[in-house]
Amino acid sequence: MGDSISNANEPLWEFYIPNYILGQGSEIERLPVSPNCPVIVFINSKSGGQLGGDLLLTYRALLNKNQVFDLGEHEPDKVLHTIFGNLERLKSTGDTYAAEIQNRLRLIVAGGDGTAGWLLGVVCDLKLACPPPIATVPFGTGNNLPFSFGWGKKNPGTDHQSVKSFLGQVMKAKEMKIDSWHVVMRMPTPKSGSCDPVAPLDLPHSLHSFQRVATTDSLNMEGYQTYRGGFWNYFSMGMDAQVSYAFHSERKLHPEKFKNQLANQATYAKLGCTQGWFFASLVHHHSRNIAQLAEVKIMRKLGHWEKLHIPRSIRSIICLNLPSFSGGLNPWGTPTLRKKQDRYLTAPFVDDGLLEVVGFRNAWHGLVLLTPKGHGTRLAQAKQVRFMFHKSASDHTFMRMDGEPWKQPLPDDGDKVVVEISHLGQVKMLASHNCIAKSIHDPSTHLSTSHHDEDDDSSSEDSDEDTEERRKFGAADTFKFPQDLEASHFS
Hints:
Layout: H1 19-22, E1 39-43, H2 51-62, E2 68-70, H3 76-92, H4 96-104, E3 106-111, H5 113-126, E4 134-138, H6 144-148, H7 160-172, E5 174-188, E6 208-210, E7 224-231, E8 234-238, H8 239-253, H9 261-274, H10 280-283, H11 290-293, E9 294-301, E10 304-307, E11 316-320, H12 337-343, E12 355-360, H13 363-367, E13 377-382, E14 384-389, E15 396-401, E16 404-409, E17 417-431, H14 443-449, H15 458-461, H16 465-470
Parallel strand pairs: 1-2, 1-3, 3-4
Antiparallel strand pairs: 5-7, 5-17, 6-7, 8-11, 8-15, 9-10, 9-14, 11-12, 12-13, 14-17, 15-16
Helix pairs in contact: 3-4, 3-5, 8-9
């Protein structure tokens, strides 16, 4: 990894951070080599079956054990708050070494998409003048975040050589910004029974209750509860979230059966069949289709809301930020020149302040993504998205943010449930040479996406109710708002 390492038992000095920088000791240490790529490592030891614990041991053997944290024992917000506070204190005393460490610092997080999103949210919350970029180790079931930025989607090796190889890639990785998307959800307090509209254990870690809403908000009234949170990859609702909810519920009941990544993916596919996602037109009542559950509005230009037309057969809708969904599939694809001209649709970028809104009829429709130019039903690109749920034949639906699903109660007569998604900030990711995510600021990206052949996508883009009738077989605490930010920003 470097000429300075002459002993296999010595730490990897290029990545090493001394204790006094970490706030673990008062005695100033000087290393044999100034680290070119100092790293703070966060590992979810419960991810990847037993592999998370093995990876934790390997990193602690190769680095200073105090710069490697088990997320089951240490909360990342407290860790980073302590470290950056200590760095600022040392810099104020004239410690130039501390300044070098801070300027070169990179973060590594090993876990599923939920774990990675947790750390991204923490870094976003800290609002650092120069936040460190983040590399993600794929240790989950979908691993959409790592895959988007070139880190793969299979569990990596946990031996010394595999970790050294990964650290070498982290050192060479380029920085890329990613949009942060925040969610405000408002729902009525139940008139009887528990005061919580959704059981706390059923909500994602990134959704939290809070009371402060703008005085001009029409839902700022007694009897409503407000939640807020956020995501980096996607927000979805409908049948895809229902299958995910079934998977997570089963894993919660029988965790011993979910220690192998391939077995987890096989179980997920099996649940897609048993939940009726492949035969949706037979088992899924049309009253639970997206258009029957909610009115959807989008904002293409700031301050101007417009109603989004959703075909009646759409059973799942995804608001997508990254070009990876369900373990590496790209629901948006790359619109052709004709689509760009006729519908103002662009290629997906992770830092353009736009969400790609895509619909699916069933799992067979989703299998189109396995073809070279396959994609879902492209509905819109938007700066903000608002779902307004009204009373329907169903008393609930399913939602999911970055792999974390929940069962969402729907309103009774006269009540409203509103979910609103808005852009709020960016963080820096680390991207390897295999990165599939694209930046709007990269000139080579525009050259590579401006000359695509026209694809035959009429079956995906057009309304398909007639076809549906003929074919009866279907396919951590995070994201805290600044105290001076009013919720009216999201209305």
